[in-house]
Amino acid sequence: MGRRDGPKRMASASGGIGAHQVSWMRTFHARSETYRAAQACVTDAHSERD
Predict the structure, then answer these.
(1) How far is CA 17 from the centre of its chain?
(2) pLDDT tens string 18-33
């Protein structure tokens, strides 16, 4: 299962997306369930690269 990362870490892992954009998206467009699922996908994909 993925870790909980903040906007700065999520932006860093995503490449080309700023922490401000991650925060804005979470505030205005994402429900907590879908944000957690997306966050887990990014984290899992990032850890598979290592």
Answers:
(1) 10
(2) 989 888 877 777 677 8
